[in-house]
Structure formats: C-alpha cells, structure tokens
C-alpha cells in the first residue's frame, strides 16, 4: 500500500467518524426536543387540571365597643355558617375571639350568642374550637372570625406565557396549529369556582329514589291508552290573553 493510499484511507475513516458523531449528536438533540415538547399536553383539561383539596371557609363578625350582641343580619350569617358546616365541612369550626381589646367584653357577649345559635343549628360542642387572639395592628378592628375547612376545587395559576403565541422560529406550535399554553385555563378556573360540590367533578352523585305514586299513576294511564301529560288546571289563570286558541 502506497503512502498516498494510506492517507486517503485515513482521511475517509476520519470523515466517516465525524459524520457518525454528528448524526449521534443530532439524534440526541432531536430526542431532547421531542421530550420537552411532548411534556405539554394539547388538551387544556390535562394542561390545567382541576384539583380537589381542602380550603378554609371564613366569616367575620364585627363587634363594636358598646354593643354586646348580634344584629339581625349577623344572626342570619351565623345560621348560614351552621347550615353550610353541616353540609360541606371536613373539620371543626375554629372561632377566633379577641381579648385585651376595647371591644373584648362586647365580643365575649356576642360570642355567647354565636355559640347558642350554632348549638341550636346542630353543631355539637366538639365541633367548635375556641381560640383567643390579640390583633397586632392597633388600628385594626378586632372581630370574631369563624373558619372551617371544606373541599374546594382549584385550577391554575393562569396567565403563564412560556412561549410567544405569534409566528416565530421558536414557537413551533403556531405552525402546527396547536393551542397556546394558557388556552382553557380561565375556563377551568371559573368552572372550579362555580361548582357547588367539588366531588361532583370526580364522581356522580347516587340517584334518589323515584316517586313511586306518580310513576304508578303514569303507568296506569299508559296501560289504559290515556295521555300521560300532566295537566295543571290553575295554569289558565296565569294567561294574559286567549291568543293562540
């Protein structure tokens, strides 16, 4: 083998080795890019899932210095807390009552009335935990706070823009007609805030028992060949005119 042939062979091997290394590096970069892109799902329900967790439901009762009791609206608020606690609470009611404040005596009398209202609404003694506090800010009006934990649906946070939504080299989703990252987040967040029972998002409620008397009457009419439509005689009294007859 001549010297020039050996040099050409070495040059060919070197070029082949460089080409192989370039292909290997390109494959690594491509794999990393695909993995990063595939980590963000296209479905907004997977991008911004609604999570079920515990959150605090609170109510504040403001008490003045010269009043030792609740107003009519405050009594209604306390009764609402009691009804809501019986329906949705996952723990005891925590009552925070101020002490060593100008309205401490009035707050104590008001809290006695709150205890009586909660007890009358079905809250057991173990369902109410009393805590005393003194506000750090002297200008802050000390109030009675009622707090209890409950299930809550949350989604977000919204307003995240990791990529430019306009046409650009970095935004490959624009050319692939894929939704931008923040798409659907506000919808999921509003749905989580509006749902009455967060567990409905996970599983359906059991069906209630049917009204057997009404169903039997409808079946009897169907068996006789009569119409099963419900007719209300008093409905004609609400009509404003005879138009359409």
Question: SSE layout and pairings?
Answer:
Layout: H1 3-38, H2 44-47, E1 51-62, H3 72-88, E2 93-98, H4 104-120, E3 128-133, E4 143-154, H5 172-175, H6 185-194, H7 212-224
Parallel strand pairs: 2-3
Antiparallel strand pairs: 1-4, 2-4
**Secondary-structure arrangement, i.e. CATH architecture:** 2-Layer Sandwich
Strand content: 5-15%
Mean pLDDT across all residues, rounded? 82
Backbone structural class: alpha+beta
Q: Which segments are poorly predicted (pLDDT under 50) over 5 or more consecutive residues?
A: 25-38
Strand order of the largest sheet: 1-4-2-3
- Tell me the distance between the termini: 112 Å
CATH secondary-structure class: Alpha Beta
Backbone shape: flat
Number of strands: 4
- CATH topology category name: 60s Ribosomal Protein L30, Chain: A
Secondary-structure element pattern, one letter each: HHEHEHEEHHH
Protein described:
This protein is α+β, with helices and mostly antiparallel strands and 245 residues long. The protein has one domain (46-233): 2-Layer Sandwich (60s Ribosomal Protein L30, Chain: A), CATH 3.30.1330.60. Helix content is 41%, strand content 15%. The chain has seven helices and four strands. It has helices spanning 3-38, 44-47, 72-88, 104-120, 172-175, 185-194, 212-224, and strands spanning 51-62, 93-98, 128-133, 143-154. The protein has a four-stranded mixed β-sheet with strand order 1-4-2-3. The N and C termini lie far apart (112 Å). The model is unreliable at 25-38 (pLDDT under 50).
């Amino acid at each position: 083998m001549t010297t020039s042939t050996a040099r050409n062979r070495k040059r060919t091997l070197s070029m082949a080795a460089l080409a192989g290394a370039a292909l290997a590096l390109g494959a690594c970069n491509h794999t990393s890019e695909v993995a990063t892109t595939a980590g963000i799902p296209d479905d907004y329900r997977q991008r911004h899932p609604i999570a079920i967790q515990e959150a605090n439901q609170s109510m504040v009762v403001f008490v003045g210095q010269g009043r030792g009791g609740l107003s009519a609206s405050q009594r209604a608020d306390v009764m609402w807390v009691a009804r809501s606690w019986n329906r949705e609470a996952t723990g005891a009611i925590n009552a925070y009552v101020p002490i060593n404040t100008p309205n401490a005596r009035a707050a104590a009398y008001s809290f006695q009335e709150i205890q009586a209202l909660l007890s009358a609404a079905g809250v057991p003694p173990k369902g109410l935990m009393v805590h005393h506090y003194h506000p750090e800010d002297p200008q802050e009006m000390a109030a009675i706070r009622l707090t209890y934990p409950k299930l809550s649906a949350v989604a977000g946070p919204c307003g995240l823009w990791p990529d430019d939504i306009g046409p650009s080299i970095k935004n490959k989703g624009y050319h692939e007609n894929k939704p931008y990252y923040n798409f659907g987040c506000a919808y999921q967040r509003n749905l989580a805030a509006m749902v009455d029972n967060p567990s409905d998002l996970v599983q359906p409620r059991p069906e209630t028992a049917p009204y057997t008397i009404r169903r039997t009457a409808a079946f009897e009419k169907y068996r006789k060949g009569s119409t099963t439509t419900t007719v209300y005689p008093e409905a004609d009294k609400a009509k404003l005119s005879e138009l359409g007859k």
